[in-house]
Amino acid sequence: MDFLTLLLGGAVLGLAGVLVHLADTSANVGPFASAFWRMAIATPLLLAWVAWQRRGSPQPLAAVPRPETAAQPPGVLQLQHRSAHNPPPALLQRWSTPWLTLFAATMFALDLLLFHVAAIWTTVGNATLESNFAPVVIALVFWAITRVAPSTVYVTGLVAALAGASLMIGPNFHDPRALLGDACGLTSALFYAAYQVGVQQARQRLATAPLMAAVTLLAALVLWPFAWLEGRLWPTAAIGWVWLVGLALLVQIGGQVVIAYAVRRLNPALSSVGLLVQPAMAVVYAWVLLGQALGGWQIAGAALVLVGIALARRGM
Q: pLDDT tens digits for 298-307?
């Protein structure tokens, strides 16, 4: 049942790029603005969740949960399950909790800025698959820091993922805007990886509700000037609010919370593979709802990316 719940959460997260694209095309909401509203609408609900937990639980919110029950954010599962002989470096461990939270929020905001642009400039499937390179980026950073050679499985996965990305991006070489969108999607993975590291460290000190609420609120503050300067902050049609509320409720709260609930009792390797449903479903949604069908080479590339990410996660 937990694995099915995880798949449901990943499937909901796959809607992100489609909703961003719909907000832009149907209500002229810019990608920066949709990122801001995604955080701003979700913030009061998450703060209400924190208040409800405080009223219903005598335990302090900052209490560190036991390892076997801690609900890690999606994407950082691999950080907590490495061999005891090769633990991940304690990045940012000396930072204070407020600075860690601010770092995570800023990295998440920058990730959203790039991913939302990519979802509009290139295909939603490309943008989502490219942003899911974050686990590969994290492993490369740890490799550079620890100087421990990666496993053969990881290298195989990395090569497969890069080859798949090349096949997916190939058809966009004749379209500078789409090619720039692909570049934004790949770059977003760098910031998403940094966000995951920051959240993983902060999660050792804060429970899920206060951490998610703080990160979402701070990310909204970081995103506000970008959204305001963009000049397309307010929807020009009422339907735009439907897409923005969907981003906040379905993607930011529903997908993230459902996944956090499900991964508590699942094997990390199984969870990591299960989360690949997000980019896979994003491709399906974009095809059905936006008519963004993939060509033969792009389908082969998407399959290679998914297999590569799965292998890279398994080899970490």
A: 788 878 877 8
